[in-house]
## 1
Amino acid sequence: MFERLIRGWSGEQVVVRFDEVSSAWMLIGVHSTVLGPAMGGTRLKAYRSPDEALTDVLRLSQAMTMKQAAAGLDLGGGKAVLAVPEVPAPGSQARRELLLRYGDLVASMGGTYLTAADMNIGEADLDIVGERTMHVLGRSVACGGSGSSAGATALGVFHGIRASIRHAFSDGDLADRRVLVQGVGAVGARLATLLRDAGARLVLADLDDERAAQVARGLGATSIAAHHVLDAECDVFSPCATGGVLSAESIPLLRCRVVAGAANNQLATRWDAERLRDRGILFAPDFVINAGGVIHLAGYERLGWDDAQMTARLAGIGQALAEIFERADRQGVTPAAEADRLAQDRLAAAS
Ligand code: NAI
């Protein structure tokens, strides 16, 4: 299976290390360095098998290439997975030692891969990785980093939702639009606050029902059970939890006009973009709308931007999406296809 997965992948290299002490597989996918060093987060997760972990790292690193290219950053696409038998508790010695050994692996790549946060990896973990390598973005401010990128991701998605509403509805106003946010974690909860402040009618859901109810109470919103998300009526469905939510099974159930959210790899297959269009649903390509996180890390830690430059670049996500929607309409293609073309053109020009 390993061989078949890697042969069928378009990336440059995969670094594989089996960590004997923890029985973890450390996998780093360097999909492309055409535009610059491969950058992307590290996911800490218990997978059913190393094959499943490899599938994730190959897919996610490829999506990072598209995200960096579409965002106009001089960075390539990479991603890492620490596939552990069990996720070690935050603050534990076992977690610290795993992260130090992982830091050594990243260091050994000499800057080909720059790591950052992803599922189950936060600032405190990156501070530990940073004890062994300088090739890490998103450490705490106290340790010289720019901190969590979740706020920037949420703001970029917020601008993207506004642009999507302007394109999909004749009045183009967010006020009183019903927006359903799936997943109120680091990004979803911040996004919900921005939407509430802009006058949207919010519906929130999370696998953790209590968390959804708590965030909803704080914002004067309503919450629904996580399993009702797909067939709940709304203007905008905003997936901010996991990938693969838009599929041949789920798309026929949707009762919304727009899908625009932070989750990576929302389309289960590339045909799902066509399925959405056939149902009259406008889809904001995920790697364009959720680029706020990489823009935050690259802007603050590599390009020396100030807050005003950052604010302007995050607002630019809305403008970029508006252009993608218009060009897609003119050319009779889906926004997802148009976003792919944009990224591929930039990669082709650079190579
Ligand atoms: P998080 O882990 O803080 O929050 C995710 C939330 O979704 C959790 O509250 C979890 O309980 C909930 N959830 C998981 N599965 C669910 C389901 N099936 N239904 C409802 N809720 C569910 O993650 P974070 O940082 O908020 O990221 C959210 C998504 O955005 C992820 O897909 C992530 O890959 C993506 N993303 C995050 C970026 C960032 O800067 N944090 C940047 C770009 C993408």
## 2
Amino acid sequence: MSTTTVKQLTGEERFRNIISHAKEYGFIFQSSEIYDGLSAVYDYGQMGVELKKNLREYWWKAMVQLNENIVGIDAAIFMHPTTWKASGHVDAFNDPLIDNKDSKKRYRADVLIEDHVAKIEGKINKEVEKARARFADFDEAMFRSTNARVLENQQKIDQINTLFKDAMEANDLEGVRQLIIDLEITCAVSGTRNWTDVRQFNLMFSTQLGSVTEDSSTIYLRPETAQGIFVNFLNVQKTGRMKIPFGIAQTGKAFRNEIVARQFIFRMREFEQMEMQFFVKPGTELDWYEQWKATRMAWHRSLGFPESRYRFHDHIKLAHYANAACDIEFEFPFGFKELEGIHSRTDFDLRNHEQFSGRKQQYFDPEENENYIPYVVETSIGLDRLFLATLSEAYTEEVLEDGSTRTVLRIPAFLAPYKVAVLPLVKKDGLPEKARDIMNRLKLDHLCLYEEKDSIGKRYRRMDAIGTPLCVTVDHQTLEDGMVTVRDRDTMVQERIAIESLAAKLQDKVSLQRQLLCLI
Ligand code: ATP
């Protein structure tokens, strides 16, 4: 095996390179690019769609196939407009926005404050790391509870969080503005503190149902997939004879008119969610909440990315429907950000749907011999953010022993867009025919790529760049002894194996079953 060195890039460089790589190799394109694009809307290309599909499938199998008490649905994007009254979205699905008068740049007020808090947290972490490097028997908990500078900064954070939470709960937008001014937060563009008032902005897109204006009514593009599950709760429970506790899973598009849309596919106006609502007996929800936190973190960890990339973040400002909530955050190239939300949503949604629809949303519990509205624990992950996390972790620039460089996507093999590439060494002498023959044996089970253009070295690099775990090369010797060269993407090690053993080798390399087994 040759020695390689991984190029060290700053987060910013990494992110920039990932974005251009995603475009160059057909993972992600800007939407309607020929018209200069549409802000915060993206299209998945031929590679992206495969990776996205594989991620979705891994989630679906882990949630639905491995859990007897979870079933899936696919609800429509359009829903009766009263749905969004009942869910609270018409009245409360707002973000507080603020503009800088000098740069005219628009920000989310809560994000400005969160970023400020993150900076203070960064200072604390630096102190901790410095101390850790100095003392062999370092006890972090003890250090955090005794070091004066850490305590002072922690106090600052607690104070800011309380002020912010109180202001938001009282809908005191002037209070939020004052906090931004008191914290001396400046605009990243103009560098000034010349802020407008804070205003609430509803994130739902609306449109008209019906062709004639007078008859039409306003409907919304769903801002979350969850409500499609709630309104079908009894349909599924009754037709599926489901017993509490049980879950309903769904994947699908959601739409939000985000104020600040940036960071590539991290924050989009049209995105895909993978949600599961778990219906439980009232009073048991917080136990289930803890259980789902652990289960979902284990699922993320099963992807094999470093443990240090993940952390839980408890919500300080609980949404109007929750009695406990946290995020699983991932360290993207631009820092730790929310990847998945886990929320204990109480009976808020079902109770409101009961009230607004006039239809009972109750479950008869045969064991307790009573009717009740179940409580709900939700797990909600953005597929696009999961995609970005996977891409960020997989993207590696390497310098090889001979000084040349390669860019490789170390995507977990079972998720890779193409599982294998079949490459005839030259475009003649019967090698393409042999290669096609091999490909035909493999393509019933796996997505395979055939490529005969360019030198074999160039083709290997191209396969590295799209994350293909194995390359199979057919050469003249193959025609004589029925052996092929198999090259591994990550180690670049090549071995000769018999064509008969290829299917088993490939299956072993990309097995989804083995991956799922880790979760049972
Ligand atoms: P954020 O605080 O980042 O705006 P959120 O707390 O509003 O996210 P939720 O309503 O909990 O997000 O949605 C569940 C998941 O949907 C999020 O964890 C995220 O992965 C995904 N998601 C939400 N908004 C977007 C978006 N604009 N673009 C891409 N994914 C999103």
